[in-house]
Amino acid sequence: MKKKLETYYNLPSEVKFCSICVNSNQYPASVPEFQHSVDRKNANYVNFSDENICDACTQAIIKTEIDWKNREDQLLKLLDNYRRSDGEYDCLVPGSGGKDSVYASYLLKHKYGMNPLTITWPPIMYTDYGYENYKNWLDIGGFDNITYKPSGEVMRKLTKIAIETLLHPFQTFILGQKNLAPKIATKYGIDLVFYGENEAEYGNPIADNNQSLRDKSFFSIKDFDSIMLAGKSLKELKEVYGLDLKDLKIFLPLLDSEYKENIQIHYLGYYIKWIPQEAYYFAVENTNFRARPHRSQGTYSKYNSIDDKIDDLHWYTRFIKFGIGRATDEASQEIRNNHLTREEGKALAKRFDGELPDRYLKEILNYLDIKEDYFHKRCDDFRSPHLWIEVDGKWYLRHTVNKDGVDD
């Protein structure tokens, strides 16, 4: 009888792969950046049906049966309820000038006649082309914008702590980004907030396939006592790292007492059929969006999540923890949109998943004051034994979608 291998992060002990896309059941659906406690022991993972179909592919099948004209009619009614004629902003759109925020904001303003305020939580380390896309979004698209840049020193410290504690370079960045929208909406009296893609596209049950995030617990909390940031309590961040509440509050959710109950937070992707490749072409045509001049390391694409130099490192650490690389994620989405076959997706995952993103690595680690040897050691510490095995000093996956893992 084979000994049961230890699993980290409450991952399913048996690795399964979707019969439609190339994703596995190790995909974190309720990921810690959306949990105030940031406790991986309580994390949820994408569900598989009895037919071995993942949640995201189930959602893709559902999308083929949706009456999109009816959904757009619902959108028009919603917008009419919030549309203003006094020149004030009637909706808020968070974004960075990437393809999705361009698509969402442009449609709301230029097709549906809304007056959106765009807001940006800027990258930790901008790429040149990412910054140009951000400027073109606002200048060519014609959008008012509030960019909220947290203290660079605080962001640097938290990013370093998050890597050391969680092997998650973007954990605190994503928390701050997600929590900014209801804060700005509250301050400016804007009751309607739009994100682009529905999280259900990736099998995330937080979105629950609904058009609106009505549960205020997603964006607010009773008190800060249970908050974990970068894997540390606020008390520890203060006593050990010298970070006070004034340094950290922008990263934290609103208190329940601060949250406006009438704020509606919606996914535009619930109302219109959202295809990432089409959003890219739309952004190129309407705001002169530029893809990277080179392939993103770890995958085959050039236009997804390209504004932050740390983004590629984030995907690499995700591969280390869950055995799911950026190529697997992107290929799975393109399979669902009938742009790739599963066999093509398998080949792309085999070729690009787990590629070390060394283009910006030294610059990032220097910025964070992390030694490269130490970083790689931490990566090895975060490899779950049920996913990885070390053979002659090299690490290999036990199971892959191509059935060429050590234990396949």
Description:
By secondary structure, the protein is α/β, with parallel strands linked by helices. The protein has a domain at 68-271: HUPs (Rossmann fold, 3-Layer(aba) Sandwich), CATH 3.40.50. The protein has 15 helices and 13 strands. It has a three-stranded parallel sheet, sandwiched between helices. The chain has a two-stranded antiparallel sheet with strand order 1-2. A two-stranded parallel ribbon has the order 6-11. A hairpin with a 2-residue loop joins strand 8 and strand 9 (232-233). The longest helix has 18 residues, at 171-188. The chain is globular and about 70 Å long.
Query: How far is the N terminus from the C terminus?
Result: 17 Å
| Gross geometry | globular
Helix-residue proportion: 25-40%
Q: In the CATH hierarchy, what is the class of the domain at 68-271?
A: Alpha Beta
CATH topology group of the domain at 68-271: Rossmann fold
Broad structural category: alpha/beta
- CATH architecture designation of the domain at 68-271: 3-Layer(aba) Sandwich
DSSP strand content: 5-15%
Any low-confidence stretches, pLDDT <50, length ≥5?
A: 31-42, 205-211
Q: Please work out how many helical segments DSSP would assign.
A: 15
Number of strands: 13
